[in-house]
Amino acid sequence: MMKNANKLPKGFLWGGATAANQCEGGYLEGNKGLSTVDVMPSGKDRFPVGMGKLKMLECDKEHYYPSHEAIDFYHRYKEDIALFGEMGFKCFRLSLSWARIFPNGDDIEPNEEGLKFYDDVFDECLKYGIEPLVTITHFDVPMHLVKTIGSWRSRKMVDYYERLCEVIFNRYKNKVKYWLTFNEINMLLHLPFIGAGLVFEEGENEVAVKYQAAHHQLIASAKATQIARKINPEFKIGCMLAAGNTYANTCAPEDVWRSMEKDRENYFFIDVQSRGEYPNYAKKMLEKLNINLEMEAGDEEILRNNTVDFISFSYYSSRLTSADPKVIGETEGNVFATLKNPYLKASEWGWQIDPLGLRITMNSLYDRYQKPLFIVENGLGAVDNPDENGYVEDDYRIDYLKEHIKAMKDAVNEDGVELMGYTPWGCIDLVSASTGEMKKRYGFIYVDKDNEGNGTLKRSKKKSFEWYKKVINTNGEDLE
């Protein structure tokens, strides 16, 4: 039977997405420990720290650290979730701060204050009929583990992550159904400190360290899946990819090959999490790089027997590559270097706007894995200019989201892609992970705070707030 071409499935999970490290604040309140993001300053030093090139293991007086207060979700979550409820959210993607639950990461007992905070957050969500979608770790490692064992370069991290999972799955088994093991797991290759708490020493083989850390995260993800199914078979466990297909600059076979290689760099992680084994191309790549991963007996079996239930991903833009070294003109798009695509417009931060690219990416992922997809990040970072009441006429954001939702619906209705839900990124303004800025805003809700930390933190609805409320209310049929 043919479905109505304009319809999304009943029970489609409309909502929005945030991360603890970018919105919570309260960075040492409630016995929380120091986390990797807490030592990441704004300004020129942020990127070198995020890359693991500049060692900053403590806070100092010379820098401003935006995560310390962020948008103060820690104290204002009731107000924020009420606004999400007013928009009609069916789902709210958020993450846990590992250091709020295990302040040092290797503690024997969890921090009850941290656990209680998330109990209260989930209760507030459920009060409005909002399903929590919880990322277990979203660019977040307790700093104690970075200092003592080198974070994910150490196999011990798997044990500490397992302990975290045991605690949260048991504690929240009746409140949370949907879980993601790692946010944008492939970001480990691009921003190693942000993605995995890695800091490099001079002269060490950084690529080898990154892939060893990746193996540990992949094992941890599989073990989390194993633990989850024992505790509550109703849990749905997903992986999470920073996605966006890489186009070839020309139809020259060398360019096409280069684009395939670029996509494989990122697919590698999801291939393991979804299919349960290292793909042959990855084995060959590691062999060529003379990287011998340290694996323990049983690792292959753990990966094989504990694959994810669904594939979640972020999509902001497509990418473009060339095999020709003479082709220049790169722009940054969500940390991924890409050539400028002459057929696409770009955001103020150089991220290329490509709604059809979302449909292409969805088809690529669904063809590859045949598992349900979940778009857990998508949005436009832009400078908003509020009036005296904090109201923003953000038609540019509405236009961006409208075109991406149309492409998403085409993938579902025209192409048969199975899609669970859509949670645009930064449903409320928050701190940018890559730049530490507040002026790069994504939200339907404006937060009065600037890049230097000044402002009242007052929340106000943008024009897109009422628009998205209508979209949800009509299950995506009314996009005007």
TrEMBL record:
Is Hydrolase set as a keyword in this record? yes
The catalytic residues are: E377 (nucleophile)
Molecular functions (GO terms): 6-phospho-beta-glucosidase activity
Xref: NCBIfam families: PRK09589.1 (NF007154), PRK09593.1 (NF007158), PRK09852.1 (NF007356)
Output the SUPFAM superfamilies linked to this UniProt entry.
(Trans)glycosidases (SSF51445)
Q: Which family does it belong to?
A: Belongs to the glycosyl hydrolase 1 family.
Q: Which domain of life is it from?
A: Bacteria
Instruction: Cite the EC number.
Output: 3.2.1.86
Q: What is the lineage of its organism?
A: Bacteria, Bacillati, Bacillota, Clostridia, Eubacteriales
Origin species, per record, is: Clostridium cibarium
- The reply on keyword Disulfide bond is no
What is the protein named?
6-phospho-beta-glucosidase
Task: Please provide the record's keywords in A-Z order.
Answer: Glycosidase, Hydrolase
